[in-house]
Amino acid sequence: MEQSRAASRLRIVLGHLGSPSALNIVGHPTSGTVSSASFHPQQFQYSLDNNVLTLEQRKFYEENGYLVIKNLVSDADIQRFRNEFEKICRKEVKPLGLTVMRDVAILKSEYAHSEKTVTKVQDFQEDKELFRYCTLPEILNYVECFTGPNIMAMHTMLINKPPDAGKKTSRHPLHQDLHYFPFRPSNLIVCAWTAMEPIDRNNGCLVVLPGTHRGSLKPHDYPKWEGGVNKMFHGIQDYEENTARVHLVMEKGDTVFFHPLLIHGSGRNKTQGFRKAISCHFASADCHYINVKGTSQENIEKEVAGLANKLYGLADSVDLKDIWMFRARLVKGERTSL
Ligand SMILES: CC(C)CC(=O)SCCNC(=O)CCNC(=O)[C@H](O)C(C)(C)COP(=O)(O)OP(=O)(O)OC[C@H]1O[C@@H](n2cnc3c(N)ncnc32)[C@H](O)[C@@H]1OP(=O)(O)O
Ligand SMILES: Nc1ncnc2c1ncn2[C@@H]1O[C@H](COP(=O)(O)OP(=O)(O)OP(=O)(O)O)[C@@H](O)[C@H]1O
Ligand SMILES: O=C(O)CCC(=O)C(=O)O
Ligand SMILES: [Fe+2]
Ligand SMILES: [Mg+2]
Hints:
Belongs to the PhyH family. This protein is α+β, with helices and mostly antiparallel strands. The protein folds into two domains: 1-44, no CATH class; 64-332, Jelly Rolls, CATH 2.60.120.620. Helix content is 23%, strand content 20%. It has helices at 2-13, 20-23, 55-64, 75-89, 128-131, 137-147, 298-312, 320-327, and strands spanning 66-69, 99-101, 120-122, 151-161, 172-175, 183-184, 189-195, 206-208, 220-221, 235-236, 246-248, 255-258, 264-266, 275-284, 288-289, 329-332. Strands 1, 2, 3, 4, 7, 12, 14 and 16 form an eight-stranded antiparallel sheet that branches. It has a four-stranded antiparallel sheet with strand order 5-13-8-11, with no helix packed on it. The structure holds Isovaleryl-coenzyme A, adenosine-5'-triphosphate (ATP), 2-oxoglutaric acid, fe (ii) ion (FE2) and magnesium ion. Fe (ii) ion (FE2) binds at residues 175, 177, 264.
C-alpha cells in the first residue's frame, strides 16, 4: 500500500517523462509537495510506472539491468515447449521461417536428426506451441513494465546448449543483444529468458555484468577462440576485465528479464545433458526502426543480408528492417509503428 502510494506520487513527479502510463494517475491524488531528497526521478529511466514491480524490484532493474522472477512459468507449460522442440528436432513439424542451428563443433557429426544435433532454434513465431511462451499473461505482465502496453514479440529462441565437445564452442561470448536489433529506443526493449530446467555454472548458466545497461552499445565481432565460434556469435572485444561477473543460477520456470544493453553471455556446458532455455525479445510497438549503415552494427547487418541471400535468394542489399517487420508479431495492444 505504502509502495503504491509512493508510486502514484512518483507518477506525478515524473509526469514530464511523457510515457502514457506516467500520465495515467491512479490512486490517491496528493496535494503535498514531494521532497526531492526522497525521490530521484533520474533513477527511473529503464522501467515504467506500474503496479506490478515492487519499488525494490524496480530499483534493482534500474541499477543492474536485469531482474529474476522465481517460478514464473509452470512445469506444464515447460513440458509443452519441450515436447514441441523434440518434434521439431525429429522433423515431425517444420514451422515456417524457423532457423535451426547446430553447434560448430558437431556440424560434421553423424547423429541422426534428434535434439542432440540442434543447438538453438530461432524465429518460432509461426509455431503455435512455442509461440505460446510469448503470449503467457505471467510473462507479458512483467514485459509491460518495460515496454508499455503495445507489445511486439521481435525475436524468439529456444536454446539447447549441447555438452561441450571439448573445444569450448558451447560458450556464448559476452555481448549486448542490441547489436542485433535495428530498432530503438533501447529502454523500451526487454528480453525474457526462462530456464526450462535447473541451470547453474555446470551446464552453462547466463553470466551478466550488472549495471552495464547504463553504458552504450559497444562494437562487436567474432572472438578469437582457438576451438571455433558459432555463426553470428559476436562478442564485445574490449570489455572491462575487472567488471564483476554474476552467474545467474536458476531453477526450472525462473525467468530473467533483462535490458538489451546488458552485457551477458553463457559458459561452457560441462555436463552430458542439453541445457534448455526459451526466450523472447519484446519491444514496444511504438519503437522505430533505424538505419545501421555507418554504425558498429553494420557488420552484423551485412552478415544477415549475406545469409538471406544464400538461403532465400534475397538481394544482398535487402534492408534488415523488412526482415524484422515481417517476423515481428503483436502480442498485446496495438501495432503502432514496428
Ligand atoms: C539477440 C540474439 C539475436 C543473439 C543471437 O542469437 S546471436 C546468434 C545468432 N545466430 C544466428 O542467427 C545464426 C543463424 N544461423 C543460421 O542461420 C543457420 O544455422 C546457418 C548458420 C545458416 C546454417 O544453416 P543450415 O541450414 O544448417 O545450413 P548448412 O548446414 O548448409 O550450413 C551452411 C554453412 O554454414 C556453416 N555453419 C552451419 N552452422 C554453423 C555454425 N553453428 N557455426 C559456423 N558455421 C556454421 C556450414 O558449415 C556451412 O558452411 P559452408 O559449407 O557453406 O562453408
Ligand atoms: N576472461 C574472459 N575473457 C573473455 N570472455 C570471457 C572471460 N571469462 C568469461 N568470458 C565469457 O563469459 C562467458 C561465461 O563465462 P564463465 O566463466 O561462466 O564460463 P566458462 O569459462 O565456460 O566456465 P567456468 O568458468 O565455469 O569454468 C564465457 O562463455 C565467455 O564467453
Ligand atoms: O546461452 C544462452 O542461453 C543465452 C544466449 C544469448 O544470450 C543469446 O542468444 O542472445
Ligand atoms: Fe544474448
Ligand atoms: Mg570461466
